[in-house]
Design brief:
This protein has 2 domains: 182 residues, no CATH class; 200 residues, no CATH class. It is 77% helix and 0% strand. The protein is built from 19 helices and no strands. The chain is mainly α. The radius of gyration is 20 Å and the shape is globular.
Length: 383
């Protein structure tokens, strides 16, 4: 709830370039409506109420993408976002109706005991698919890069900051389903492990800066799936903390990428070169946020990865050979992203740039502070 309010305030600050009082008013109304829906999702004790808020969040973000996006392809991106999520969420609605019919109880806190009667792995997997698409998991992630690329900066910030976390929150709330999936969860953990390496290889050949950051989110969220599906305290705590850390680091990267786009009129890695010579403060900020995305100390993501590695080693020791490959490839494409944009010869066609204004620096500092300050007092998060 705190990160929802925090990110929503940052979205309002990031939308200062929206021209027109009438247009800006509608954007702020959509931000406020989406904040209310998110708070309703995190405070609902009823599964049906959670499903209602979970699906209602699609409407404001779809209107933000469609009404304030930059490219004509924003309609296709919005439709991908709507139909992927709605199509995967229908089995969840059928499960809620079935539970109420057979058990007469749809409160979240008593749901784990009620779900044990559903011993069908296919049923449980279809229900969890609603959250795996929302996170998203590899092979259900096609909507995410399209939505991020076509959304305005406020839409990208809320998508990366909070909306992707609804899937992880739902997995934690409906943890009883994971206990039923004893035979299937090992395949999901293996798929998330291989998915990190797969997405990292894709990122090494992407030219669009915003799409590259979006794909890095898919690789990062694979850690959340592994931690939650382990079903142990270390894994769940690590998954929750990495969702918070990813929410501020990834949304900050989207903002800095949008700042470069506004000044250089291009998101291409080949056209945005040598930025360290004309925007040195931007290069420093980009480096700090990239470090947070890599999960190196002193960031909160560093602690979360230690917890996740500890929980995964108890699952299978062969993971100690597979996990470093995905982590190494994740570092490779993030360093490529930084070096391609900040170093090299400046192209004379795109040599227009001005420094960051005070509002933008304040917004970026508010992204960086939670990422680094929690490292100094980690007991606030891990208890």
């Amino acid at each position: 709830m705190v990160i929802s309010v925090w990110v929503s305030l940052l979205r309002v600050m990031a939308s200062h370039r929206v021209t027109g009082v009438y247009i800006r008013k509608w954007l702020e109304i959509l931000i406020f409506v989406l904040l209310v829906i998110l708070l309703g999702s995190f405070t609902s004790f009823n599964v049906l109420g959670f499903y209602f808020y979970f699906e209602s969040s699609l409407i404001p973000i779809f209107m933000i993408i469609l009404g304030f996006g930059y490219q004509p392809e924003r309609l296709q991106a919005g439709l991908y976002f709507i139909f992927y999520t709605l199509g995967a969420s229908l089995p969840l609605l059928f499960m809620i109706i079935s539970l109420y019919y057979w058990v007469g109880e749809i409160r979240i806190f008593n749901l784990s005991n009620s779900i044990t009667g559903f011993n069908s792995n296919l049923m449980c997997l279809l229900v969890l698919g609603a959250f795996l698409v929302k996170i998203p998991m590899v092979f259900t992630h096609l909507w995410l890069p399209k939505a991020h690329v076509e959304a305005p900066v406020s839409g990208s910030i809320i998508l990366a900051g909070v909306l992707l976390k609804l899937g992880g929150y739902g997995l934690c709330r409906l943890g009883g389903l994971i206990l039923v999936l004893r035979e299937v969860k090992s395949y999901i953990i293996g798929l998330s492990l291989m998915g990190i390496a797969y997405v990292s290889l894709i990122c090494c050949q992407i030219n669009d800066l915003k799409a590259l950051i979006a794909y890095s989110s898919v690789a990062h969220i694979g850690l959340v799936i592994r931690g939650i599906f382990r079903g142990f305290k270390w894994g769940v705590l690590g998954a929750l903390v990495i969702m918070v850390g990813h929410g501020v680091s990834s949304s900050g990267l989207f903002f800095i990428a949008n700042a470069y786009y506004e000044r250089r009129s291009s998101r291409s890695l080949f056209l945005n070169k040598g930025l360290i010579r004309i925007l040195p403060i931007g290069s420093l900020i980009f480096f700090i946020l990239t470090r947070g995305n890599i999960s190196v100390p002193p960031t909160i993501n560093f602690w979360s990865e230690i917890y996740l590695i500890g929980s995964l080693l108890g699952f299978d020791t062969i993971i100690i050979l597979i996990f470093p490959v995905g982590s190494f490839l994740g570092v490779v494409f993030r360093i490529l992203m930084y070096s391609y944009t900040q170093h090299g010869r400046i192209l004379f066609l795109t040599n227009r740039a001005v420094t960051f204004i005070g509002r933008e620096i304040l917004l970026i500092v508010l992204h960086i502070l939670p990422l680094y300050m929690f490292f100094l007092n980690i007991s606030v998060v891990f208890g």
